[in-house]
Amino acid sequence: MKAAMFMPCRRLARRGWASRALPQLLALTFGLVVLSFSSRAHAYTWMIKHGYSNCGACHSDPSGGELLTVYGRAMSEAFLSSKFGGDSESSADAFERRQMARFGKAAAAKLAKPDAEEEEVDAEEEEEEFEEEEAAGESDGEEASSGDSESAPAASETEEPASERSFTDPFFGLFGLPESILLGGSVRLATIYNGDADPKIRWFPMQLDLYGELRVSESFRAQASLGVSKVNAGAPHGRAAQITTNQGDGYRLISRTHWLAFDFGGGNHTIRAGRMNLPYGVRIPEHTMWVRERTETDRESDQQHGLALAMNFEKVRFELMGIAGNYQSSPDEFRERGYSGYFEMMVGERAAFGLSSLVTYAKNDRLSPSDNLSTTRQAHGAFFRTGVGEMLAVLGEVDMVARSRKELGYTGFLQLDFEFAQGLHLIGTVEGANTNYPSNPRTLVSGAFIEQERLPGTGELQMGYWAGAQWFFAPHFDFRVDAIFRQEDPMQILGQLHVYL
User: Fold this and answer.
1) Pick the residue with more confidence: 472 or 56?
2) Whether residue 35 sits in one domain with residue 8
3) 20-29, 80-89, 208-217, 438-447: which range is least confident on average?
């Protein structure tokens, strides 16, 4: 039964690349376009279901991921976490009240960067009303205290009062922070079951990172991350972000991102320089999924140093990065230089469709360093994020992958996220990949030419299936479990407990 199931894939693998992959790419691309015109989104990851197409509203990185802004923290509690009981005041309302008290209504609303002009007008009107009420309150206070010989010390203008802190604030609101500083972090503990491994069950810290940002002025800010990683010798992840020199399978310090930024255009546009996530495709957290692994654009350790321009408009956003190489790895001959970027357009009220492109060049190929051959790597594709109805989110991406001395390859995924109650998600994913098969597979061995076998994922299409559930059971906390079935690979069950500091 198993051989019969995969026989069509093997027949396709024996034909030319176009006949094998092009029909699948066209079909998936057509599906992306059709689904992109759905009316409503419900993808917790991208917040597009609430009309937040601009990732920079909730994240310090203009393309999303990692460090949350103060607005993003409140939105994560309001729209991601499960609700227990009947609170009279929603998290979003509580956040708005706190921000209005600290900065004024217009400034608080500006954090969200609303697309609609009427929202900005409403915010200004509400601010005027709030200022009038505040002035009346101050006048009453002055009259009541006119006989006091000493006035109470003024509240700090740079640190949030303890009474205004929230459990959603950094480090559970245990201490206040100046307005110019953002802090955060991720602790992701994982356990994995693999029936073919020894031991069958392993526990390990998947992520131990701290994030920080300092805003020097209205336009200038600096951000950096510092973390700890522990991977086996020869592992493809972790080492590319290492900042210490120790090797082996022990713990090492890493810094995935660190950059300087200049914001302009009312904060909607940003120029950054430093080590950054590559702007490419759907920015999903599953760094081992083939679309991120085969295009080498994951957020785990594939960041590069360079210069990037990100621009966000009402219906369009894009980011283009000039890649200078990863200066946390050596020697220089293996550093890739080139560009990576994406362009995304809203094609409906709650749907977006985009294109990505990446081209890099290195003096030597790290996959076969002894050959000392220059290598060009490319990835080009399309992606989308949208919703069907009120509870189902659909994310997808398809990419063509090219590398010197390799056949043209491809990878893609389609993910359905069903949120049947706030904070409770059922997630199903289908993925496929076929990359890095040699363009000249014949090798001379003992005087005879032997052709490299085509295997699933390298020369043949390999399919993978993820079935998972995720529960955001409290602000700062979520738990996820995935059963991963990949053709020719043993089944794995991955559990993750994530704490966002």
Assistant:
1) 472
2) yes
3) 20-29
pLDDT digits 0-9 by tens, 257-278: 999 999 999 989 999 999 999 9
Could you give the CA distance from residue 183 to residue 213 in angstroms, rounded to a whole number?
7
Say whether both 57 and 93 belong to one domain.
no
Q: Are residues 82 and 55 in the same domain?
A: no
The domain total for the chain is 2
Indicate whether 35 and 177 sit together in one domain: yes
Q: Which of 313, 302, 315 is nearest to 276 (CA)?
A: 302
Q: In the predicted model, what is the mean pLDDT of the chain?
A: 78
Which range among 108-122, 164-178, 200-214, 445-459 shows the weakest confidence by mean pLDDT?
A: 108-122
**214 in Cβ contact with 180 (< 8 Å):** yes
Same structural domain, 217 and 260: yes
Is residue 209 within 8 A of residue 227, CB to CB? The reply is yes
- Look at strands 459-460 and 455-456 and give their pairing: parallel
Instruction: Answer whether residue 146 is part of any domain.
Output: no
Q: Note down the domain range covering 350.
A: 2-66+168-500
What's the rounded Cα separation, in Å, for the pair 490 and 479? Answer: 23
In this predicted structure, the answer to whether residue 358 has a pLDDT above a threshold of 50 is yes
> So what's the pLDDT on residue 81?
84
Rounded-to-integer distance, Cα 214 and Cα 223, Å:
6
Q: Are residue 328 and residue 340 in the same domain, yes or no?
A: yes
How far apart (Å, rounded) are the C-alpha atoms in residues 132 and 141?
Answer: 14
Distance of CA 161 to the CA centre of its chain: 32
End-to-end CA gap in the chain? 48
Domain end residue (candidates: 138, 160, 191): 138
192 lies in the same domain as 329: yes
Q: CB neighbours of 62 closer than 8 A, spacing ≥ 6?
A: 55, 56, 270, 272, 310, 312, 319
| 241 within some domain | yes
Condensed to tens digits (0 to 9), the pLDDT of residues 403-429 reads: 999 999 999 999 999 988 988 999 999
pLDDT tens-digit profile of 33-63?
333 333 333 334 445 555 555 676 778 888 8
Phi, psi angles (nearest 5°) of residue 217: -150, -175
**Contact 396/32 with Cβ under 8 angstroms?**
yes
Task: Report the alpha-carbon distance of residue 495 to residue 501 in Å, rounded.
Answer: 19
- Domain end: 119, 138, 157, which one? 138
- Helices 17-35, 2-14: inter-axial angle, 10-degree rounding: 110
Cα separation values, 467 from 40, 187, 430, 447, Å: 23, 23, 9, 48
DSSP string, 95-129: HHHHHHHHH-HHHHHHTT--S-HHHHHHHHHHHHH
Residue 118 sits in the same domain as residue 202: no
Which region among 21-30, 51-60, 70-79, 239-248 has the lowest average model confidence (pLDDT)?
21-30
Q: Considering all CA atoms of the chain, what is the largest pairwise distance in Å, rounded to the nearest integer? A: 105
Is residue 79 assigned to a domain?
yes
> Tell me, what DSSP letter sits at residue 48?
G
